[in-house]
Design brief:
This protein has 154 residues and is an alpha+beta fold. It is built from 6 helices and 4 strands. Helix 3 packs antiparallel against helix 6. The relative contact order is 0.20.
């Protein structure tokens, strides 16, 4: 599996992928406290391997790492045929976790960045794939059945 950057025009990367997806790589490590998990971004992309997954033991790899992979498009319950509804809902339902853009190696090819811009990046450090005490906003955003809220206008 290659974790090399893709050329422009190819499928963007999902920043909330599963480690078993084709082309998956780790780009962040989950840290923080039980009540406030935060992603620390790696300096590069680490291809998924048995050794990497074993480093998470005894918990699931998605509790320890954030994974990216080529967007699954229509195979993903969050994809509406054009956009990632998860990204839209995270921006609309969750407060920013950062006031600065994280040092993320995925950004140039990230679907969330391309779709929602800085607003997605400000929330990204708080996104953990396996979250056992999600906020109400996280629960609503993660549920594919939750409709995308209408944008709030100031």
């Amino acid at each position: 599996m290659s974790a090399e950057p893709r050329s422009r025009g190819e499928v963007p990367f999902c920043p909330s992928a599963q480690p078993g997806q084709e082309g998956a790589f780790a780009f962040g490590v989950v840290g923080g406290t039980v009540g406030e998990r935060r992603v620390g971004y790696l300096e590069g992309r680490v291809p998924v391997s048995d050794e990497l997954l074993a480093m998470a033991g005894p918990v699931k790899p998605t509790e320890v790492f954030r994974f990216g992979a080529p967007c699954a498009g229509g195979a993903c319950s969050h994809f509406d045929g054009h956009d990632c509804r998860l990204a839209t809902k995270l921006v609309q339902l969750m407060p920013p976790a950062s006031k600065a853009l994280p040092a993320c190696q995925l950004r140039p090819e990230c679907r969330w960045w391309k779709q929602e811009g800085k607003s997605a990046c400000y929330r990204c450090p708080a996104i953990v794939t396996d979250c056992y005490n999600p906020s109400e906003g996280q629960k609503r955003a993660a549920n594919p059945e939750t409709p995308v809220p209408a944008p709030a206008f100031a």
